[in-house]
Amino acid sequence: MFSKNKMNPQGAEAPSQPETKPAPPPGATPPPKPAGLDAGIGSASKSKAAASVLSNDLMIKGDIKTSGDITIEGEVEGNIHAHLLTVGEGAIVRGEVVADDIVVNGRVVGRVRGLKVRLTSTARVEGDIIHKTIAIESGAHFEGAVQRQEDPLGGKSAPKPPQAGGDAPKT
Fold it and tell me: Against a cut of 0.70, is the pTM above it?
């Protein structure tokens, strides 16, 4: 829109480096940085790693534990603990799965414990599901019991009611 000639009428060259602000006088406090510029970028990349993916040609025997996200496309014989667990459509997991969020598109043989559990239409689960919230799409195959708990990750089952003639607490 503007040409160099109009900005520098005497034909002087434009400065090669951008202007810098003068340094603050000694003893002066620097102005505060705007919130979210430096802190948001650096902390987001450090705190949130990319999801780990176990490809469909991978077969693992053993437990898997991560504080991050994991997607299983292959086969796992062992327990899985994660933040977000996605079981792919062709995946098979034989063992207990525990995560904050669990999405099952494939097959799980074992107990499922999660705050949010979602079984898609292609899911096959053979085992109990302990959850805080659950969604089961039409077409999902499920064999087992469903139990809602306020803290399904705590690992403890819901207290069983005392049986008649047992050691019931006295009031």
Answer: no
